[in-house]
Design brief:
This protein is an alpha/beta fold. It contains 11 helices and 13 strands. The longest helix is centred in the middle third of the chain and has 17 residues, at 144-160. The structure holds NADP nicotinamide-adenine-dinucleotide phosphate. The site of NADP nicotinamide-adenine-dinucleotide phosphate (NAP) has 31 residues, from helix 1, helix 4 and helix 11.
């Protein structure tokens, strides 16, 4: 099969680099175009980019001349890791021109006609793009902290109904992009504030777990309270959850439901699908970002310390790779699912 040409928007950034890294030798997609800011446009990628990945830039990618958002693109699918200050308008323009934009940015996530997709959880929400006024379309993935919360809540909500969730996050510095938080602020420290993050964590899961009917999503009706913290970890967001459910649960039942959860990406054996999207640990001291964030290509949500709660019904610690399953890897799996379900024409 001929590969589908794709472009990376925000190609020089933390998420953009991860797209380039992960898409090397992808069986379905081939990077043909790269877009970044006017600072980078017109330069060869290797000159424009401050490459931070653990293997050198691929020779073909190195020599691609970076475009600006003003330039037209030939690729049908555009993976976006653009800075939020420009992503809103730029992604709309691309969708109007007929491109399918698969975005990591926050700008369109809460638009009524834009789905936030986790393909194991709500692949039916792809249909929402039929309500969009564009020749192409915009599909988003969630905020990098929401990803792991919504993944775990999905099977629990289906089985028991979620009433409320309390979450406290410990988020890696790579989540702030490059150069991100100053070393003077984060080394040996915890910063108890990440601008705009708590709003996203408190609202996105309800949309993802909502019901699509008549071209609209009715949000799921649970409440989330979030505390978001930046911690001196390089990659991998850890989150402590307390969950109140609508019916009786046991720890063993929760472990069984989470560890057997699967969706369309697993059924269709898609290239970026983890074997199981959730891995449950029995060890008391796991998951840990240093040891577990790259499990199964960095595409899993690791869960541990599942136990009875004193306030809610159940407590647990969850963790996942923020720039892979929380960003670029999530978008790639969204695109693979979109194509596999026959949406790309
Ligand atoms: N980091 C994560 O873990 C994570 C997770 C989920 C979602 N996100 C979201 O993904 C997006 C990118 O995040 P990041 O961490 O990769 O940020 P980043 O490292 O700061 O990269 C930002 C990218 O946007 C480009 N850009 C800036 N101004 C532009 C313009 N006027 N036109 C076109 N491109 C422009 C930059 O290009 P230059 O290099 O040329 O300036 C760079 O490629 C953000 O919206 C962020 O919220 C990030």
């Amino acid at each position: 099969m001929e590969k589908i040409p794709v472009a990376i928007l925000g190609a020089t950034g933390t998420v953009g680099q991860k797209f380039i890294y992960l898409l090397e030798n992808h069986p379905t997609f081939e990077i043909k175009e790269l877009v970044a800011s006017p600072r980078s446009a017109g330069k060869k990628y290797a000159e424009a980019c401050n490459w931070k990945q653990d293997r050198p830039i691929n020779d073909t990618i190195k020599n691609i001349v970076v475009k600006s958002v003003e330039d037209s693109l030939e690729s049908k699918i555009l993976f976006s890791g653009m800075d939020a200050s420009v992503a809103g308008e730029a992604e709309t323009n691309y969708a109007e021109k007929g491109h399918i934009v698969i975005s990591n940015s926050k700008n369109h996530r809460m638009d009524k006609d834009v789905p936030i997709i986790i393909p194991e959880v709500n692949p039916d929400h792809f249909d929402l793009i039929k309500s969009q006024p564009y020749k192409g379309g915009i599909i988003t993935n969630s905020n990098c902290s929401t990803m792991f919360i919504a993944m775990v809540l999905a099977p629990l909500h289906k089985e028991f109904g979620v009433e409320w969730v309390h979450v406290s996050t410990m988020q890696a510095i790579s989540g702030a992009g490059y150069p991100g938080v100053s070393a003077m602020d984060i080394l040996g420290n915890v910063v108890p504030y990440i601008g705009g993050e708590e709003d996203k964590v408190e609202t996105e899961s309800q949309k993802i777990l909502g019901t699509l009917a008549n071209g609209e999503i009715k949000d799921a009706d649970f409440i989330i309270s979030a505390h978001c913290n930046r911690v001196p970890v390089f990659d991998g967001h850890t989150e402590n959850l307390t969950i109140k459910l609508k019916s009786e649960v046991t720890v063993e039942k929760v472990k069984e439901i989470l560890s057997t959860f699967k969706g369309i990406p697993q059924e269709k054996n898609l290239p970026f699908a983890p074997k199981f999207p959730i891995i449950v640990f029995d060890e008391n001291d796991r998951p840990q970002p240093l040891r577990d964030s790259l499990l199964d290509k960095g595409m899993v949500t690791s869960v541990g310390r599942i136990r009875k709660g004193t306030l809610g019904d159940i407590k647990m610690t969850i963790m996942g790779h923020n720039t892979i399953r929380g960003a670029a890897g999530a978008a790639i799996l969204n695109a693979e699912t979109y194509v596999a379900l026959g949406y790309l024409n």
